[in-house]
Amino acid sequence: MFGYWIFKVSTALFQALVFGLLLACAALPAALGAGLMLQASMSSYDKLPQNLRTPPPAQTSYLYANDGKTLITAFYEEYRTEVKLQDIAPVMQQAIIAAEDSRFYHHGGVDVKGVVRALVANRDSGRVTQGASTLTMQYVRNVLKTDVTLTDEQRRLATVESPDRKVQEIRYALQLERKLSKKEILNRYLNIAYFGSGAYGIETASRMYFSKSAAQLTLPEAAMLAGLVQSPEVDNPINGNRKAALERRAYVLDSMARNKLISDEEAHRAKSQPLEVRQSTPPPNKCVSVAPEHGDWGFFCDYFHQWWNSQQAFGATRALRDRNLKRGGYRIVSSLDPKIQATALRESLAVYPYGNARALPLAMVQPGTGRVLAMAINRYYSLAQNPNNAPYPNTVNQLVAGDDNLAGYQAGSTFKMFTMLTALDGGRPLSTLFNAPSPLVTHWPGGGGAVCGGRYCPPNANPAWMNGPRMMWDGFGRSVNTYWVWLEEQVGADKVVAMAKKLGIQFRSSLDADLAGPRVSEWGAFTLGVSQTTPLDVANAYATVAAEGMYCPPLPVLSITDRDGRALPQGSPSCQRVVSEDVARAATDAARCPVGQQSFYGKCNGGTDDAIGSLLGRPVAGKTGTSDGESTESFAAFTPQIAGAATAVNPDNPMDAVGGGVSTAVDRAVANTMVDALKGQPVRNFQPPSAAIAGLTAPPG
């Protein structure tokens, strides 16, 4: 406080000089005194720190579900909602002036009369009894104190009690008064002031203490809030200090009456009213504090947070992007659909309940936009201690979407889709025929168990059902390993891996990154899904096929508006064509076979889960996937409107065999989620591929 500085000045000569100067200024008219002090300032307004010229006080950002109403969480360093002066009750404006700077409208930033009064009072009492900081000076100090561009040490030096810093504060205050109107300064002050209990700014304080907007404050309420600014926690009724809060309220009301802002009778009536605090709790902050009734949404929230921090438009570094989210006052409507999310969680829990070491991460995506509709798993997104020191069911590991610390899981034969797309894109038709043996001896060097004479030689899982002449339709439907390894050998592993990358598959582990890079030509097993990936990546890759070759990066938002209500482009899909419509339609035609539906050319003759088609009751395509040793069981499927994928796995022990017996349950989890998601939506059919890409002379039908 300014009074503290005045009291601490120890040099008698300096104190006398200051006292004489202030007396001289006090004898002048206010405007003239301010003018002389302004002329003495060596800095212009344009030399003020940027945050003082165009200050954006930190505001809370809110993340909602796709209905724009259901709160997922908030992100904030300071819980604040900025409001305009006309949205603050006049009685609140008067109360803060009476409490902190009764001569606010009569000085030019520094109240010389107030300084003299404080100097005399503090000298006579031998201690600090009065301060002399104006609202403008307090505002300057608050801005410097909360400037996120400063280090802790810079912030300390900018606000430490010293003559030099106080002179700087005075200079800034004078310059602000020259440039800004009193109303602008008052508005900024009320939006940045701290009112205790984590409430920054008058709108947040009003809602925190009285569960109403700042525009609705009554005289007793305004006086109580104004009284908090001096000692926000000491005089705080929420902290149990009701007596101190009442005393401060009375002080403010008396000051308002003394300064003719209210009558003595109004002050008396207000003081006689009981202190009625109707406390509201602050919103959840960040993803570990997602609203308790939506605790399973934490994984989606975490994915949104990752996505935000990856967007260069929000800052030059990840740290700056995160800071902007917590200070920017954004309103973010996410893509999360509560209905689909609830179904996805129900289906995940039907396979493995909470507390099971094994998990079923499941993701749903909208084709044509990449918008993420649901991310579910039988885990709690929580930092809470787990029983018996187990790594489950509470975790904050990103088990559905993956991140830099979690590469994902093998998705098995779902990766055959990338080999099929590569072959079709390279001019090979769906009718490409190969007499599939078991095993198939390839030209690739062998490693592990599938080796014949030093060469990689994978077998088929069920030779009696899979061996023999196959085309893409039944090769995909029956998941014939040797057909797809042979086809990968024909088109080149490098091209298949490149196709997977184009559809959004990421190679997060160091081994996968190496195989997808310098050693890509050796990766003969890639088509069998040995790379680690996530349900979200697989769902979005299959959504690309559903969108007839348009790849849209996964997008967790519907819209983003800034604190001024401007819509930001980052809320819109950013899609690009990665394969032609005909290639995507051909791949879709073959993908009808695994789920028991018929291709446009009538070439499906068996599928690995042929009950899915009738369960959906509408056109659907998909693929099952089993990794070596049945350590994972996966399923991916799509209609024109939605795509989904899931993997059964033990995330903490990926080599733990989940067993083939769970495969049907995994398929049903995805299918049932799609059924609920599509209720009420029109039945849309896929488009037939051309006869040329099918490799047949007659068109379908």
Automatic annotation (TrEMBL):
GO BP terms in the entry: cell wall organization; peptidoglycan biosynthetic process; proteolysis; regulation of cell shape
UniProtKB keywords: Carboxypeptidase, Cell shape, Cell wall biogenesis/degradation, Glycosyltransferase, Hydrolase, Multifunctional enzyme, Peptidoglycan synthesis, Protease, Transferase
Stretches assigned to the Penicillin-binding protein transpeptidase domain: 364-666
GO molecular-function terms, A-Z: penicillin binding; peptidoglycan glycosyltransferase activity; serine-type D-Ala-D-Ala carboxypeptidase activity
Location of the Glycosyl transferase family domain: 71-256
SUPFAM superfamilies, alphabetized: beta-lactamase/transpeptidase-like, Lysozyme-like
Alphabetized InterPro entries for the sequence: Beta-lactam/transpept-like (IPR012338), Glyco_trans_51 (IPR001264), Glycosyltr_51/Transpeptidase (IPR050396), Lysozyme-like_dom_sf (IPR023346), PBP_transglycosylase (IPR036950), PCN-bd_Tpept (IPR001460)
Entry-linked Gene3D superfamilies: Biosynthetic peptidoglycan transglycosylase-like (1.10.3810.10), DD-peptidase/beta-lactamase superfamily (3.40.710.10)
UniProt region (Disordered), positions on chain: 264-284
Catalyzed reactions: [GlcNAc-(1->4)-Mur2Ac(oyl-L-Ala-gamma-D-Glu-L-Lys-D-Ala-D-Ala)](n)-di-trans,octa-cis-undecaprenyl diphosphate + beta-D-GlcNAc-(1->4)-Mur2Ac(oyl-L-Ala-gamma-D-Glu-L-Lys-D-Ala-D-Ala)-di-trans,octa-cis-undecaprenyl diphosphate = [GlcNAc-(1->4)-Mur2Ac(oyl-L-Ala-gamma-D-Glu-L-Lys-D-Ala-D-Ala)](n+1)-di-trans,octa-cis-undecaprenyl diphosphate + di-trans,octa-cis-undecaprenyl diphosphate + H(+); Preferential cleavage: (Ac)2-L-Lys-D-Ala-|-D-Ala. Also transpeptidation of peptidyl-alanyl moieties that are N-acyl substituents of D-alanine
GO cellular component: outer membrane-bounded periplasmic space
Family the entry assigns: In the N-terminal section; belongs to the glycosyltransferase 51 family. In the C-terminal section; belongs to the transpeptidase family.
PANTHER family: BINDING PROTEIN TRANSPEPTIDASE, PUTATIVE-RELATED, PEPTIDOGLYCAN GLYCOSYLTRANSFERASE
Name of protein: Penicillin-insensitive transglycosylase
Species annotation: Planosporangium mesophilum
